[in-house]
Design goal:
Length: 282
C-alpha cells in the first residue's frame, strides 16, 4: 500500500498571537467607538445614507446625554461578546494542535493513519459545535489538559454573561445564575498602584506626587455580582480588566499545551531560555 508523509509545523507563539490579535481588534473598535460617544445630535438620529430611511417609531427619541449613555453600554456589551467569541475561536485552534499530536501518538504505536482516521480525529467530535464548558471538558478528558481552575471558572462566568447579553439583552434570568441565585462574573486583572512610606495608593495619571513613590503591580482576582432581573453593565475599566484576564487564560492554555508537547517529545526545550521553544514539527 502506498503511503505519504505529511509534514506539519506547529507554532505555539502564533497560536497565542491569534488570541492577541483578536483581543486587540475588539479593543480598537471599542476605543474608537467610545472616543466618538459625545457626538451631538444635530436634528434627529438617521442612518448616514443618501436615501430614504425607515423610521419605525417616532416615540423613541433621545437627548444627547441619553444617546451617549446608551452608546457606551452598547459598545461595551458588544465588545464583551466579541472578546469571548475570540477566545472560543482560539480554543478551537488549540484543539487542532492537540488533535495533530493525538494522531502522532497513534502513529508512534504502530497504527497506520489514513484520511478516515484524520477526519475523525480532527472533526469527528464536532468540537466547534460544543458549548464553551464542554470544550474545556473535552480538552481535559481527551487531551489531558489541566487548566488553572480559577482562570477556567472566570472564563465560564464571563461566557455566562456573554450568553445573557446575546440571548436576553443583558437582563439576568434564573438560567444565568451561578452562585446563591445571582450571576457572579469573575476575572483576573493586573492591578497597578503606587507605594510610598505611608502605604499603597491608587495610581492616577496626571496627579502630582507629594512623596517619593514606587510604581508596583500585582495580579488579583475581581468579580461583579448581578441579581435576577438586573441589567448587565460594565465600566470601561472592567472591560479592560476582563480582556486582560482572558489573555491570562489563553497564556495558561498555551503553557499547558507546550508542557504536554515537551513531555511527549514533540517540542524540544530550549536550554538557553526560561520558557520552552514553542515550535515543533510533527
Amino acid at each position: 500500500m502506498d503511503t505519504e508523509n505529511i509534514h506539519i509545523t506547529i507554532n505555539l507563539d502564533a497560536l497565542l498571537g491569534e488570541l492577541q490579535h483578536s483581543l486587540q481588534f475588539t479593543i480598537n473598535l471599542v476605543a474608537f467607538s467610545l472616543q466618538t460617544e459625545h457626538s451631538t445630535i444635530q436634528d434627529e438620529l438617521r442612518l448616514p445614507i443618501e436615501n430614504i430611511t425607515t423610521i419605525f417609531s417616532k416615540r423613541l427619541q433621545w437627548s444627547n446625554e441619553e444617546a451617549s449613555e446608551y452608546q457606551r453600554i452598547w459598545v461595551l456589551t458588544n465588545g464583551l461578546r466579541d472578546i469571548v467569541e475570540g477566545v472560543n475561536l482560539f480554543i478551537e485552534s488549540a484543539h487542532k494542535v492537540l488533535s495533530v499530536w493525538s494522531l502522532i501518538d497513534r502513529q508512534n504505536v504502530g497504527e497506520q493513519l489514513n484520511s478516515v482516521i484524520w477526519q475523525k480525529e480532527m472533526q469527528g467530535t464536532a468540537f466547534h459545535r460544543l458549548g464553551l464548558p464542554d470544550k474545556l471538558e473535552h480538552l481535559y478528558k481527551e487531551h489531558n489538559i489541566s487548566l488553572d481552575k480559577d482562570l477556567a471558572r472566570h472564563l465560564l462566568s464571563i461566557n455566562t454573561a456573554r450568553n445573557c447579553l446575546v440571548h436576553r439583552r443583558g437582563i439576568v434570568s434564573n438560567r444565568d445564575t451561578n452562585i446563591d441565585g445571582m450571576l457572579c462574573v469573575e476575572w483576573r486583572k493586573l492591578h497597578t498602584f503606587l507605594k510610598d512610606e505611608d502605604g499603597e495608593h491608587e495610581l492616577i495619571f496626571g496627579k502630582r506626587l507629594e512623596k517619593e513613590s514606587t510604581l508596583c503591580a500585582r495580579v488579583v482576582d475581581d468579580k461583579k455580582i448581578f441579581a435576577v432581573g438586573e441589567q448587565l453593565t460594565f465600566t470601561v475599566q472592567e472591560f479592560s480588566d476582563v480582556t486582560w484576564g482572558l489573555f491570562a487564560f489563553g497564556s495558561n492554555l498555551v503553557q499547558e499545551i507546550s508542557a504536554r508537547g515537551i513531555n511527549k517529545g514533540f517540542i524540544k526545550p530550549n536550554p538557553e531560555a526560561a520558557q520552552p521553544d514553542n515550535q515543533a514539527d510533527g
